[in-house]
Amino acid sequence: MEQCERASEIERVFSSLPSGLPSDPLHRAVRVSEIRESNFSSPSAHPSTMDYRRRSYSMDDLPDNLLHMVVGPLGLKPAVRTSLLAKRWRDVHRSLPIVEIDEDDFVSPDTKTIDEYEFVSAVFAILEGRLLPFERFRLCCGLLDGEGFDDEFKKILECVSIRERTITRELSVIFVGGDFYKIPECVLFNLVLIKLELEKCWIDVPISFPGLKKLRVLFLNITIISEGDLERLLDNLSELEELSLIYCSKLHNIRITSSSLQKLDVVAFRSLSIVIRGAPCLRSVGVIYDFDVEEAYENVIDDKAATPLVGTGDTDRLIRMVTELQQVNKLCLSISKEFDKFESQKMVSFLTFVLASSPNLKVLTVGDRLYSEIANNDLTVEEDYWEQQPPTVCVNCNLQEVYVILDGDRKKFWVNFVEYLLVNGNMLKKVWICCTKGLRHLFEIQRYISLIVKASANVIIEFEIVKKGKTRNYFARAGLESIY
Amino acid sequence: MDMEDDTVQVRENSAEDTEMLELPKDPAEVKASEFIKGESSKEIPVESQQPELPENVVLQSLEKEEFIIKLAVGQQSEIIKNAILDGRGENPVPLLNVSAPILAKAIEFWKRHIDAAEGEDLTEWDKAFLGDLSQEVLFELAAAANYMESKSLLDCTCKFIADIIKEMKVEEVRDYFGIECDFTEEEERKMREDNAWAFEQ
Questions:
Q1: Model pLDDT for residues A168-186, shown as the tens digit of each residue
Q2: Coil, strand or helix: which one is A34?
Q3: What are the φ/ψ torsions at residue B91 (nearest 5 degrees)?
């Protein structure tokens, strides 16, 4: 009861503030009322026609939300320095909607180290001087754990999670130290949080917690969370729309049940079991198994405690995940090298399965990074496999964009696949092929493709060359923005 | 599709960014579902179901001076966009907080951005455009962009001002923008002390 009151109290605080960006719904709500009432009393509000005619315009006449847009991007320290300009400017930095604190800004140029006490007291000074809650609060540092600052950082996170004047709607905690930072429970008590981003953290989820009911985006990057805790989170986050699980090494079997989830991205350095059960709003799924990174995160893989994977094999697991994706519009799949159970035959059947079972698929991204040692042993795929495939509903009616990222040696396989899509894809608008083998390779593919008779006359085909092993950036282009 | 409903939606449902030309249903999805049911393909609802929109928009400045622009140009301002989508189709659109020379500059900016080729980088043009303006006009333009809810113009002007301030010390910023320091020496000293971490160089 009390919590509901607190939550609505805080909501009221938020909705009565002018926010920084004009397209932000909060700001628009304020603007509409301003236009309707034309009643500006404070000098820092929008100038009325009378003010305008009276004197010449100076920067001091600009309303607070505009000054926020000027001061905010200057960076943390310069923003605070603007308070010295004049009395008009004294409090501008104290109500900035977005505050990002990075320990790199506190590196002393002489000693090249960070004065920890100075850093911590600076963060406290910012919080104490705060006039309004945060829209976004980002903390990036390596001091979070150990070094005797545990209590201080717990207090900082308490301020931005439960204290009314310093609460934040978007929180990012990025740990850059050696180990993992254990997120204190207070973060889960935030009643207004809509976006949470954690990197290199560790989170335990209690059976029930009062906050995060409004959370829409959850981004867990290199974060330790157990399978049970993830399920508990999803149970409680009734408005969650986007979930990204990037290299969360403790997760092997991921079960997704969420009535609100629209977008799911999973990046792992090995094959997982992803079971999607009851996610009617899910429209976009991205799965990347990125084995190259395994060496880098060696110390993080805790195989002894690993629960056994459900399902009989990697391909079967992927196929099972795909059976739940009938509503999905956007699918991104990439398997990288050493995933040696993914022989061509299985890859082929998997792709066929994807196309058959996701009739609403509009955007498909596939990446392949299998190298020659494996590819040369693949004699199991018939040359004309794709020619013989009947077109599926999704290819005929829905598929609009296809992104193919070739970083391996199975050129012919993928070119035949693209040919199949072009010949049958009536709604295709764009096909984008990225390969790593150099111009000659590219020209061959280009020439072959230009000779194909395409079902969709207006399809645009783009090619791009990228350095071997550097294909990761291209997933961002192809729609996996949340990851890269 | 009932236009009246759309009007109400645009006005009151300010919590959502409603796209101007919203199709009733995705034609591709309609086709697919019929395909699955086994029916023969029917007529797909076509975009021409959209109501008639004027090709040109008339804007009225503070001095009641009128500017005629193409709809696409004016749509870069949410105020103008909404005024047109409104069932009553306010034409001319009154922009009583924007004076004529400022409105002319805003229109010039919008026109250049609409005419830009896809992927064309306009940062140089933006810098030159804003650099030509006097400080006073620059601030007025920023305030106008805020009032007319034109994100592109607002972002551009604020970034331009921020870039100037970025390189300067406090005294330099005061000089450049003619900001009068109304702190006493004592007050200023105390402020530097309180936030010492931000002031060491």
A1: 999 999 998 878 889 999 9
A2: helix
A3: -145, 110
**E strands, A223-358, in order:** 242-246, 253-256, 263-268, 273-276, 284-289, 330-336
Contact residues for A239 (Cβ-Cβ < 8 A; gap 6+): A213, A214, A215, A216, A260
Residue B198: both structure tokens together: 């931000």
Q: What is the DSSP letter of A25?
A: H
Residue B117 has φ and ψ, to the nearest 5°, of -70, 155
Section B7-32 average pLDDT: 36
Distance from CA of B152 to the nearest CA of A (A): 10
Residue B151 and residue A427: Cβ atoms within 8 Å? no
List of chain B residues whose C-beta atoms are within 8 Å of the C-beta of residue A396: 35
Choice among A118-127, A162-171, A323-332 with the minimum mean pLDDT: A323-332
Q: Which residue, among A175, A105, A109, A100, has the nearest Cα to A143 in the 3D structure?
A: A175
Q: Are A334 and A368 in contact (CB under 8 A)?
A: yes
Contacts of B76 in chain A (CB under 8 A): none
Contact A65 B146 (CB under 8 A): yes
Do the bridges between strand B66-70 and strand B56-60 make them parallel or antiparallel, or are there none, so unpaired? antiparallel
Q: Is residue A131 scored above 80 in pLDDT? A: yes
Of B166, B188, B191, the CB nearest to A78: B166
pTM of the model: 0.75
Give percent of chain A with pLDDT exceeding 90.
Answer: 26
Q: Where are the beta strands (DSSP E) in A64-124?
A: 98-102
Residue range A24-33: mean pLDDT, rounded = 39
Number of H helices and E strands in chain A, helices first, is 16, 17
Average pLDDT of the residues in A16-30 = 42
Instruction: Find, among B47, B57, B64, B111, the residue nearest to B89 by Cα.
Output: B57
- Residues in chain B with CB shorter than 8 Å from the CB of A120 are none
User: Which residue on chain B is closest to A49 by alpha carbon?
Assistant: B97
A93-106 residue pLDDT tens: 999 999 999 988 88
Q: Which of A81, A103, A105, A395 to mutate to test the interface with B (most CBs of B within 10 A)?
A: A81
**In contact, A363 and A430? CB cutoff 8 Å:** no
Give how far Cα A386 sits from Cα of A350, A362, A375, A401, Å. 13, 20, 18, 19
Average pLDDT of the segment spanning A40-62: 53
| 3-state DSSP percent of chain A in helix, strand and coil, to 5 | 40, 20, 40
